[in-house]
Amino acid sequence: MTETMDVTGSAIGRPLRRKEDARLLHGQTNWTDNIQLAGTLHMAVLRSPMAHAKIAHIDVSPALERPHVVAAFSAKELGELNGAVPCVWPVTDDIQMPPFHALAVDKVRHVGDCVAVVIANTKYAAADALDAIDVDYEPLPAVIDMEAALKQGSVAVHDAADGSLGTNRCYDFPLKPTGDGSFEAAVKAAGDDAVVVKRRFINQRIIAGFMEPRAVVASPMGMSNEMTVWSATQIPHVLRVLLALVTGLPENTLRIVAPDVGGGFGGKLQLYREEVLAVQIARHLGRTVKWVETRSEDMVSSHHGRDQIQDIQIAATKDGKLIGMKVDLLANMGAYLQIITPGIPLLGMFMFPAIYKMDAYEFSCTGVFTNTTPTDAIRGAGRPEATYAIERIMDELAAELGMDPLKLREMNWIKNTEFPYTTVAGLAYDSGNYEAATERALELFGYDELRAEQEQRRASGDPVQLGLGISTFTEMCGLAPSRTLGALKYVAGGWEHCTIRALPTGKIELITGTSPHGQGHETAWSQIASSILGVPVDDIEVVHGDTGRAPYGMDTYGSRSLAVGGQAIKKAAERLVEKARIIAAHQLECSPDDLDFIQGEFRVKGDPAKAQPLAAVAFEAFTAHNLPDGVEPTLQAEATVDPNDFSYPHGTHLAAMEVDVETGKVKIRKYVAVDDCGVQVNPLIVEGQVHGGLVCGIAQALYEGVEYDSDGNLLTASLADYLIPSAADLPSFITDRTETPSTTNPLGTKGIGEAGAIASTPAIINGIVDALRPMGVTDVKMPATPENVWRAIQAAQGGAQ
Amino acid sequence: MTHVPISVTVDGALYEAEVEPRSLLVHFLREDIGRVGTVVGCDTSNCGTCTVLLNGRSVKSCSVLAVQANGANVLTIQGLAEGDGNWHPVQQAFKECHGLQCGYCTPGMVMSAVDLLQENPSPSEEEIREGLEGCLCRCTGYHNIVKSVQFAAEMMGGK
After folding, report:
1. Rounded to a whole number, what is the distance in Å from the CA of B59 to chain A's nearest CA?
2. Among partner residues B37, B94, B146, which is closest to A27 by beta-carbon distance?
3. Which domains does chain A have, with CATH numbers?
4. In angstroms, rounded to a whole number, what is the distance separating the alpha carbons of residues A459 and B5?
5. Interior angle at CA A331, CA A330 and CA A335, nearest 5
């Protein structure tokens, strides 16, 4: 077995086996649901069975008669404690932000809306007592479809009659250049040479599907204001600020702990109503309150993602040079705005032009309220939707022009000699090498052989046709330069923090503001620190996910942990070495400039026998018996880093898809992913992130899709109905990396957590459409189930839909 | 509700308890005897995170009543490697091949793999994929889980 061994030389770039695994593989885990405090009360939530209804009457008192029930609350009983859940990204000045309370007031607006809670001594008693609550709903018509929601006279999710909006239009975000920069002007200028392709793509709604259901334990400390909250969250630090704002509890008495967290994928980047309820009720009762969702609750109440109608136009000259692009989105907000709901499609705004050069770009997005579960970030958050649209329409354009889709891409992408390059969307890409990634992908894929086989199958009328799907993607990650976030009206910064302590016994404590939930930060962060401090990886302990122990941070999402958090680690480690150097020089009676720091020890230049290891310096800093003048005791350093830019991972993904034209069944014959995430700290972890991302994107392409009926009932309301793919549904992948270091990131790293999810969806669908194009198919509805593929074939051939 | 006495051996230790007839085995493990290494991921028996061995065969412990385990022998992820600090080859293989990320599906995935290799000591990739179909993972894309099971099979002498 490979061990996490002592390291000489740089630990960066090594596929070390993870420190995290021993515990996780032996069931020695600390999930929020494992936390059992004496005297804990359990909360169960009564949820709306209707998508839209007036709560004509509600009486929670019968629940109090049930055994072991301690309390029950509707909005009325909760009163002032029924806090408003905030949205921190008001994307326009005139955005409509309806009130969103922890418990619904007077009306319910989606199936799963929180109506009341029961607090009992056991979770079973709490759940059993929910059906004693007496609720009379007066059903109202529900609006589920975005276009219907925008029509004059549509039912309003937030009705003017209630003093609310009276419109389902949440916001209109235009990016409309005038004059020569406009799409229309650019197309006009090209005259007869312009070819315009217009498509409507539906990027369907999906569910995050983290394996650990959400859970929260809120534990107050009697008459002091102290409150400890354990939550299965990606964002303990953000949660602390928001809970303080929502509940009025002093932030300095709130401690938030994200213990072991079983996946997030954006779904746990949220302030959830149940977190507010647990905290408020715990505070009110002076008792610990615990809530763990069931999976069925998760499906209706954890935020959903994607759900865009994308009208895309792309223009090129007849020989294939891109002229411009116009994007008009409808983005489904769901019934309420959660933490960053309105901003998700705007992250995509930057990415539609992707790796391609063009002179004109227009974008508009309308956010729409519907009687559905709120949407928000899911792995990729805005970028998968954008990448899907651009990579799909590049194939459509290639077909229109009669060009090879790869040639068309190659002709228009930014050449590796052209970096840094500012795109038409205004992003400055620091680095990239699309040629290298593509070349390697083609090599691994056997592109020419597969094209030959495709021809053969077409010629022989094989019932199983072959299609080749291409996705040459990039993404922006490392959220984010605070100034940029401010310009986008996001109400927070994007910095990250690290404190490193060299303890008197020689061990290193690395305190990070990132909050891992599967990403292997304990291992990777140790590798970064080890490479600078020269201390073995196993002597470094990474502390995270607890605002009591790691007070500063902006947490983990948007592929930011390494891209931003890594910079803070590097800076803190370097500062620590500089402080140690002064102490070591004093110990060794030389000038700090005369010291080399090699393999964890300070060595006098020209006299390497005279040396002082970092541990000895740390002990000296602890005893403080003989420190140089002006040097404070203890050896620690901290850094808070605001990134100066995003980073732009990219890659080329190729999918060979077999499509049975008689049954519509598709099979991934071969999938090649060559990613470029710059410098890899731990290639093993990078590889794992790629695999997981791929399957997230492939699942959207082939298996997953949230379905509502016209009354707003969620039809995919359990894991029996919503198809999260299993091992049997998927192939193994062929992966590799090219390495083009980021020039704006001091470690040369870029993000990798979302890349696979961003790249793979269009690769799969392009492959299916490529297989069927001779039959006249130009699009397939996602997920490309046998039924949807079969229908696409029938429709193209003039058969019944 | 009336309680029913049961006695179950879990990870080598005998537990005697009184449970509600409706109690699921997974809730007995987690809440009555504190074996919280086994977890719950759904309420429709789809996710497989709660998989344990019941008399040597893998079961989803959410689809077995605690009373049905009366007199039985249950092995969980916490008892898989005998003694502290020990590793079962399947656990070793998952670490070596990076077959886990967040770790939430891991108890079920590992126990399923153990049963799979008991049945079929040298499974093909397809047999592994079919064999683990009852366990969902959202982090790994299964690629490295399959590799882990293949590596475990090799270590255990299957091929």
Report:
1. 17
2. B37
3. 31-380 (3.90.1170.50), 430-476+648-796 (3.30.365.10), 495-641 (3.30.365.10)
4. 70
5. 125
Global pTM exceeds 0.90? yes
Reported ipTM exceeds the 0.95 cut: yes
Smallest CA-to-CA distance from A536 within A4, A7, A138 is with A7
Cβ–Cβ < 8 Å for A394, A387: no
Q: Which residues of A505-542 are buried (b: 16+ CB within 10 A; e: fewer)?
A: ebebbbbbbbbbbbbbbbbbbbbbbbbbbbbbbbbbeb
Residue that is written with structure tokens 């391609």 in the block: A356
Kindly list the residues from chain A whose CB atom is less than 8 angstroms away from the CB atom of residue B39.
29, 31, 33, 212, 262
Q: Which amino acid is at B15?
A: Y
A568-603 burial code (b ≥16 CB/10 A, e <16): bbbbbbbbbbebbbbbbbbbbebebebbebeebbbb
The ranges of chain B annotated as CATH 3.10.20.30 are: 4-75
Give the confidence band of A799 by pLDDT, cuts at 50, 70, 90.
Answer: low
pLDDT digits (tens, 9 = 90+) for B81-107: 977 789 999 999 999 999 999 999 999
Token pair listed for A22 = 């021993």
User: Which CATH architecture does the domain made up of B4-75 adopt?
Assistant: Roll (3.10)
Partner residues linked to B73 by β-bridges: B9
Instruction: Check if the beta carbon of residue A233 is closer than 8 Å to that of residue A240.
Output: no
**Residue range B89-155 in CATH 1.10.150.120:** yes
Other CB atoms within 10 A of residue B86 CB: 11
Query: What whole-number distance in Å separates Cα of residue A753 and Cα of residue A765?
Result: 22
CB distance A761 to A585 below 8 Å:
no
CA–CA gap between residue B146 and residue A21 (Å, rounded)? 17
Nearest CB to B44; choose among A20, A213, A718: A718
Query: B70: which 2 tokens?
Result: 């009366």
Q: Which residues contact A337 (CB under 8 A, 6 or more apart)?
A: A87, A97, A98, A100, A170, A374
What pLDDT, on a 0 to 100 scale, did the predictor assign at position A258?
98
d(CA A608, CA A114): 68
Q: Looking at this protein, which amino acid is placed at residue A229?
A: V
Measured between alpha carbons, how far is A612 from A106 in angstroms, rounded to an integer? 70
Smallest Cβ–Cβ distance between B130 and the set A22, A212, A728 belongs to A728
Residues A509/A782, Cβ–Cβ less than 8 Å: no
Contact predicate A372/A717, CB 8 Å: no
Residues in a beta bridge with A468: A656
Longest dimension (CA), chain B: 52
Cα–Cα nearest to A332, from A220, A204, A459? A204
Three-state secondary structure call for residue B7: strand
Backbone phi, then psi, for A631, in 5-degree steps? -100, 130
| Numbered ranges of CATH 1.10.150.120 in chain B | 89-155
Instruction: Note whether B49 contacts A696, CB cutoff 8 Å.
Output: no
- Using CB atoms, pick whichever of A23, A28, A209 lies closest to residue B138: A209
SS3 of residue A774 by DSSP: helix
- On chain B, the residues whose CB falls within 8 A of the CB of A121 are none
Chain-chain contact of A295 with B42 (C-beta, under 8 angstroms): yes
What separation, in Å, do the N-terminal and C-terminal C-alpha atoms of chain A show? 56
> Which phi and psi angles does B133 have, rounded to 5°?
-60, -30
pLDDT in tens, B49-83: 999 999 999 999 999 999 999 999 999 999 999 77
A296 vs B contacts (CB less than 8 Å): 43-44
Nearest CA in chain A to B99: A688
Mean pLDDT check: name the lowest of A293-297, A349-353, A475-479: A475-479
The one-letter amino acid at A795: A
CA dist., res. A422 & res. A401, Å (int): 27
Q: What Å distances lie between residue A300 and A707, A712, A714, B144, CA to CA?
A: 11, 11, 7, 31
How many residues does this entry show for chain A? 801
